[in-house]
């Protein structure tokens, strides 16, 4: 991983994320307010604005990386940050649509240290509210009625389709004995990187940037997304549950063929062979049988992945993608302070603990 950010850089990123959250939240609240009851209440719970009883809450609404990127991309194009707000909100709505559906499909009972929507309000509401957020995203962009809004919507629609492709790939991989590193990177490029790439270009597009500028910023976001997912894959196996809000070994519990797993299986040596034998047997078990494993069995799998080199390879991949993101910035003429914030945000993504 890159060296940990300095206190000044950490403060810079914190301020950037807080600005993204503060400016986008009113737009998100207004969008959610359009939904019919009880979907508006369920969505408000998901975003952390209310608790399970409907009382106001100050829940963790996520890191707000995507809104922060959208606002910063507008500034990279010479526009005011506020120009990006419809795009920032639209990308965040699509992201949360995917979280609502993913939690249900994966059977995750916790997100952001709270019960997930399907656990509190039922699977039907999780599906409906996810669909509604997806529809709202296009609505708030298209109602701007500008050529730039049309360009932004096309980018968001393409990214959304890739995101769904990636989720379908992710599910299909769970019951395969092994997935190649190339397949895993393709899946993660679709599921995670495509929407981050869109976030990093959508503000610039709304600010009137040309296609070359938007494409360069999108490349930054794509590499950043792959770095983000590589770190997410590491946290999905070795992350501290107190920081991640998920169970220990969460990705192993779900039989995800994440980058550390795929890289370990592709490696030579006895550890990779023993891991492959376990994964072959695991693929034949039902999810109920698999969930009955004790902690030692998941710990043993994690140890084999590390011994085979999957953890080290994934850390190196995060560094490679981080470097690729910074190279993409060289193709865009932007104010120095904006470039510094893009760099600080990239550093934050690869050293985070949750």
From TrEMBL:
Protein's name according to its UniProt entry: Polyprenyl synthetase family protein
Listed PROSITE patterns: POLYPRENYL_SYNTHASE_1
Family: Belongs to the FPP/GGPP synthase family.
Gene3D superfamilies: Farnesyl Diphosphate Synthase
Alphabetized UniProt keyword annotations: Magnesium, Metal-binding, Transferase
SUPFAM superfamilies the record matches: Terpenoid synthases
Alphabetized InterPro entries for the sequence: Isoprenoid_synthase_dom_sf, Polyprenyl_synt, Polyprenyl_synt_CS
């Amino acid at each position: 991983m890159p060296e940990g950010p300095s206190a000044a850089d950490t403060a810079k990123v914190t301020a950037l994320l807080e600005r993204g959250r503060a400016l986008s939240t009113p737009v998100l609240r207004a969008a959610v307010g359009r939904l019919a009851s009880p979907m508006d209440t369920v969505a408000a719970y998901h975003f952390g604005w209310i608790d399970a009883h409907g009382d106001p809450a100050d829940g963790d609404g996520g890191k707000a990386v995507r809104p922060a990127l959208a606002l910063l991309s507008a500034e990279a194009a010479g526009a005011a940050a506020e120009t990006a707000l419809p795009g920032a909100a639209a990308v965040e709505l699509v992201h949360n649509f995917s979280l609502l559906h993913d939690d249900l499909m994966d059977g995750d009972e916790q997100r952001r240290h709270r019960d997930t929507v399907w656990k509190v309000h039922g699977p039907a509401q999780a599906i409906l509210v996810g669909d509604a957020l997806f529809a709202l995203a296009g609505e708030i962009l298209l109602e701007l009625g500008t050529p730039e809004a049309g360009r932004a919507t096309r980018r968001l629609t393409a990214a959304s389709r890739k995101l769904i492709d990636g989720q379908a790939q992710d599910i299909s991989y769970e019951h395969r004995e092994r997935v190649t590193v190339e397949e895993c990177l393709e899946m993660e490029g679709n599921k995670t990187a495509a929407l981050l790439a869109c976030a990093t270009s959508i503000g610039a597009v709304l600010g009137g940037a040309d296609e070359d500028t938007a494409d360069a910023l999108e490349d930054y976001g794509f590499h950043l997304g792959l770095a983000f997912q590589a770190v997410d894959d590491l946290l999905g196996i070795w992350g501290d549950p107190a920081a991640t809000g998920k169970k220990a070994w969460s990705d192993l519990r779900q039989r995800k063929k994440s980058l550390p797993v795929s890289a370990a299986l592709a490696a030579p040596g006895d550890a990779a062979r023993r891991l492959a034998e376990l994964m072959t047997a695991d693929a034949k078990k039902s999810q109920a049988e698999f969930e009955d494993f004790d902690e030692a069995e998941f710990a043993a799998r994690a140890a084999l992945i590390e011994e085979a080199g999957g953890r080290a390879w994934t850390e190196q991949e995060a560094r490679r993608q981080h470097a690729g993101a910074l190279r993409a910035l060289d193709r865009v003429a932007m104010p120095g302070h904006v470039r510094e914030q893009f760099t600080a945000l990239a550093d934050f993504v690869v050293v985070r603990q949750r």
